Amino acid sequence: MGSTKTSRGFFARNRSVFVLGLSALIIAATADLFAGLFLKSMEAYILAVPGMMVLIYSAIGMRGNIYGAMGSRLGTSMHMGTFRMSFAKGGILRNNMEATLALTLVLSISMGIIGWVIVRFFFQGDIDPLGFIFISTAGGLLAGLVVMVFNIIIAFEGYKHDWDVDNITAPLIAAVGDIVTVPMIFLSTWLFLHWDPLLTDACCLVLIAFTFVVIARIIRRKKSRKGRMDESKRIVVQSIPVLIVCLFFEIGAGIVIQGQEARLLEFAVLMIMMPAFLNEGNALSGMLTSRLSSMLHLGTLRVQPLPPREAYENFGIMYIMAFVTFVIIGVAAYMVSGSDNVSFLATMFIVVAAGMVTTTVLNFLSYYVAILAVRFNLDPDDHSIPVTSSIMDLAGSMIMIAVVLAVL
């Protein structure tokens, strides 16, 4: 009887979390499956350009890191009562937009450079370095602008309806990032393959120059009269070192997937399911870190070596939502794949087993990353989401591939 009351109390306390969170996750899963279908349909481009798997999954991951952190910052400002739906210079929304654009450009160029080096020397891929950087930067910028618009829309609707955006931003931004990033990367790849090489190289150099101008304008900003650093400058300065480290985790995930390219192309259900699997894990970790960051800001989460009761309650929420969404992903991916070389039971075992192991890792990782950010006097919104998302992309891809190799 007591356990029944406890369960009812748990679901009653977190009713809005389950309603908003599961709704957002299911929408995200649907969008992610469309991204997987699109990825499967572009098999010719994947084979035509060496290292496309590395670039695609790195780009998807970084989009979630940058824009998920933006959503978390806006959510925290709403909790603290400082958010205003205004594009005025110096406002929270304007500062976040400027900083996020700058981070998108810097990380896209960095991803192109590092990705090219890895593809060239580890996969013996023969591709022009400026061309690879062009694909990464042009695709990243186009996708980033679209995702930013959606981030603002989510913030506006959340502000207007008094929603807890921590429960919806991460999954929806992850979904939009998926469904936008994959086509934009392939659009920039199409331009690279069909334009004159001199034109793509020139466009690449223009994008690099534009990035330097944007960063210089932000870095040169002076402190306010109260001695506080400009918010967009603070975000850029604090985020770039962390995001560069995160980039290596994202590229690591891309390398793991690139190494299994032939197997993924052979089994359609895996190709379709992989973006959805990784980004649902990404969305869950983003949702949890957003909630923990807000709790730390508000002082409602104790910082201690072992997670307190409040943290375990959030872990339970993640397990329930993870099970539901991974089951939906498995069923939907199997139905749309049209594949008869992987059974339904094998598909469900792969996605649920890998999903629950991944959820266990992300629960504890999210907590310890959040409290370490506080201990080192860093903003959890700027560091928790990128770090947990990047590590989870690498861990999730390794867990999924390990289960696939064990089953198939």
Folded structure, characterized:
It is built from 14 helices and no strands. By secondary structure, it is an all-alpha fold.
The gist of it:
The protein is mainly α and 408 residues long. The protein has helices spanning 2-13, 15-41, 43-48, 52-79, 92-122, 129-161, 169-194, 197-219, 231-259, 261-266, 268-298, 309-337, 344-375, 380-407. It contains 14 helices and no strands.
Mind sketching the topology for me?
Elements: H1 2-13, H2 15-41, H3 43-48, H4 52-79, H5 92-122, H6 129-161, H7 169-194, H8 197-219, H9 231-259, H10 261-266, H11 268-298, H12 309-337, H13 344-375, H14 380-407
Helix pairs in contact: 2-7, 2-11, 2-12, 4-5, 4-6, 4-7, 4-9, 4-11, 4-14, 5-6, 5-8, 5-9, 6-7, 6-8, 7-11, 9-14, 11-12, 11-13, 11-14, 12-13, 13-14
What string gives the helices and strands in order? HHHHHHHHHHHHHH
Residue-averaged pLDDT, rounded? 85
Q: Kindly state the percentage of residues in helix.
A: over 70%
Residue windows where pLDDT falls under 50 for at least 5 positions = none
The number of distinct helices, counting runs of at least 4 residues, comes to 14
Strand content: under 5%
